[in-house]
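Technical annex, item 7. During the second reporting period the consortium partners agreed on a shared format for inverse folding records so that results from different sites could be compared directly. Each record opens with the tokenized structure and is followed by the designed sequence. A conforming record, contributed by the partner at site C, is shown below for reference.
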């Protein structure tokens, strides 16, 4: 039996409500992906009605794409802040910033769901554009060559997978996990 979620009754500007719904969508899509997530679950988590969710985002896929954009945007913003804080070693600073994001597993899990959903041309276009923006920013900010950038992004993907399988939780008890990601955590 499904429990009824209490709807929020206080008035909130649409932009703030939109941000709340995006956070709820990130969590739900991270758990079940684009096709396994129901808009009812997102609306319940956000404390809004489904019609209101559709009024703000149009379709479930539009909401998924907005959540994907949000997650990539958060990574880009973390990279920008890291580069501004430590301009002498930008790649190391960005790597540390990304590692700090590992505690927010939902965002990284959503990235993996986004990659998996790229058989949909709309999802593929959004993921390619956002990944390209990350790459171009890192390239511009660091000034590094192609090989160094490939290594940076490969390490980032390793950390994304590590977060997805929750390796940071076992790094102290599993030798192989420590050997694999120890330098990053």
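Designed sequence (site C submission):
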């Amino acid at each position: 039996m499904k429990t009824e979620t209490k709807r929020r009754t206080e008035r909130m500007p649409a932009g703030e409500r939109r941000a709340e719904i995006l956070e709820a969508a990130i969590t739900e899509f991270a758990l079940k992906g684009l096709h396994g997530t129901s808009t009812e679950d997102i609306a319940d988590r956000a404390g809004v009605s489904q019609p209101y969710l559709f009024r703000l985002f149009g379709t479930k896929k539009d909401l998924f794409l907005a959540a994907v954009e949000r997650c990539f945007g958060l990574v880009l913003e973390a990279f920008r802040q890291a580069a501004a804080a430590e301009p002498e070693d930008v790649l190391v600073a960005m790597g540390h910033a990304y590692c700090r994001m590992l505690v927010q597993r939902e965002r990284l899990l959503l990235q993996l769901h986004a990659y998996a959903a790229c058989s949909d041309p709309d999802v593929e276009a959004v993921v390619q554009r956002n990944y390209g923006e990350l790459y171009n920013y890192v390239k511009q900010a660091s000034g590094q060559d192609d090989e160094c950038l490939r290594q940076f992004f490969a390490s980032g993907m390793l950390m994304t997978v590590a977060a997805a399988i929750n390796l940071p939780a076992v790094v102290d008890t599993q030798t192989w996990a420590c050997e694999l990601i120890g330098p990053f955590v």
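Residues 17 and 46 are 8 Å apart (CA to CA). Confidence is low (pLDDT under 50) at residues 1-6. All partners now use this format for quarterly exchanges.
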